[in-house]
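Field guide to reading this record: the first block holds the primary sequence, the second block holds the structure written as C-alpha cells, and the final block holds curator observations. Each block starts with its own label. This record concerns Guanine deaminase, catalogued under organism Goodfellowiella coeruleoviolacea.

BLOCK 1 — SEQUENCE
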Amino acid sequence: MGRRHFLAGLGLAATADLMTSMATANASPRQPTDRAADPDADAADPSGCDRTVVYGCLLHFLDDPGDPPAEQAWELFEDGALVIENGKVVWLGPVQRLSDQHTADAKVIDHRGQLVLPGFVDTHAHYSQVDVIASYGEQLPQWLDKYVYPAESRFDQPRHAELMASFFLDRMLAAGTTTASVFPTVHANSVDAFFAEAERRNLRVLCGKVLMDREPHAPSHLRDLSVAQAREQTLDLIARWHGRGRLGYSITPRFAPTSTEQLLQMVGQLRQERPDLWLQTHAAENRAEVDLVRTMFNARSYIDVYDRFGLLGPRSVFAHCVHIDDQDRTRLAATHSSIAHCPTSNLFLGSGLFQLAEARGARVQVGLGTDIGGGTSYSLLQTLNEAYKVQALQGKRLSAARGFYLATLGGARTLQLDQQIGNFQPGKEADFVVLDWAATPVLARRTEVATSFQERLFALMTLGDERAVAATYVMGKRHHSAPARS
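BLOCK 2 — STRUCTURE
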C-alpha cells in the first residue's frame, strides 16, 4: 500500500486489516523473531554490510501541515520500508516498490504493526534540573530560588554532572527523543560532562555554559566572576566541543534578569563573530518576570531587550514567549528567530498559555520543549497532550498532524537542523522512534475502536508516554528498547 491520504484515514475495512496486523505483531509482545528483538542486532556485521531495511508504518512530514492540516505536508506508508546506509536514509516508500538492490545483504528490522517516525526533537530542557522535577508549590521566581539554584550548585562536582547527564540522556532516549537543546549550569565541567555523554551515544545535541552575572538575581555561588572570564570559558568550550561529531555549541545567557548589560553585549558580539553557533535563552515566561525585565532595562518588551543587544537571529531559540505581543512576534519572524513552546512547564508553574496560532500567523518558527525540570515529563507525547489542552483553554485546537510535525520536523526547523534531521528524506540522518499502538490497555482499546488513522494518531498523542516507545534508533542503530510487556 503506497502513500495514503492522512485525513481520509484508512476506512473501516483497512482499519480492521491493520488491527489484525497489529495483533499478529504483538502476539509475542516486543519479542519478534527478527533482529529487532536481538540485543546484539546492532553490533557490527562481520561481512561489512552497512545497509539496513526497516519495515513498519512510516509517517514523516515535508512541511507544516497547519490547522486544519493540509495533506500534501506529509507522507504515510502504512506498509512501508526505510532503507538506511552508513546511518543515513537512502530510500523510503511502500514495500511493493522495494528493490533487490535495497535489500541485498541488508539487515532487517521488522516493526510491522507499529508506527515509525523521525526521532523526536526537544527544543528546550535542563539536564541540570533532573532532581527538581515535580517540586511543589511555587511560580517561576520562587521556584528558581527554592529548588533550582540549590540543585545546580552541585554541578561543580564533575562526577555528579556525569551521573546527571547520563541519566537525562537515557531518559530522553527512552522517551523517543534523539535531538535536544539543553541547558547545563554555569560550571564549565557541566558542559564537558553533557557533551561527553552525548558523544558516547552519538546524539545530535546542542548545549553551552550558562552565563549569568547580575546580583541579586544570580546567586553569588552561581555567578560568573567577570564578563571577560565568562567569554574566555565559553571560547574554550567552543574550541573543545563545537562541530565535534554531532555536537553543536549554544551561547547560553540564562535570561535577562540574571544578565548585566555588559554580559548581554558580550553575548551579542560573540554571536556576531560566530554565526555558526546557536543561542538559547528564556523569554517572557512569567508575568512578574516580564514586569521586572521592563523595569530593569527600561524596555518596551522582553524581546526588545534581547533585540537591543543583538541576540535575535537565525539559530536563536527563545524558550516560552508566553507573554509577548504582535510586535514581538513580527520582530522574531523578521530575524528568523525561533520559539520553544513548553506547555507542561507553563501549566505546572502557572506561567500562562502560549499563543500557538498567533505565532504561526506571524510566521514564527515554533518547536516543542519538555523544559525538564519545570516540565513534568521527558515524553514529547505527553508534551503534545498538554499542548493540546493549552490551545483548548483558548478556544483553539491542535491537530495530531500538526502536533507530530512540531515534535519532529518543526523541532528540527526551530533548531535549524532540518538539513540533517526531522524527516526521512534521503540524505538525512536516520534517527527514528518506533511507537506501539497497543502499549497500554487503554491505548490499545482506543486504537481498536478508531475508524481512521488520524483518530488513532490523536489517541497516541493524548494517551501515549514513554510506555508507547517500543524502540529508539540513532543513526540507524538501536539505543533503546522497551522491556517486554508481561
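BLOCK 3 — OBSERVATIONS
The radius of gyration is 22 Å.
The longest strand covers residues 74-85.
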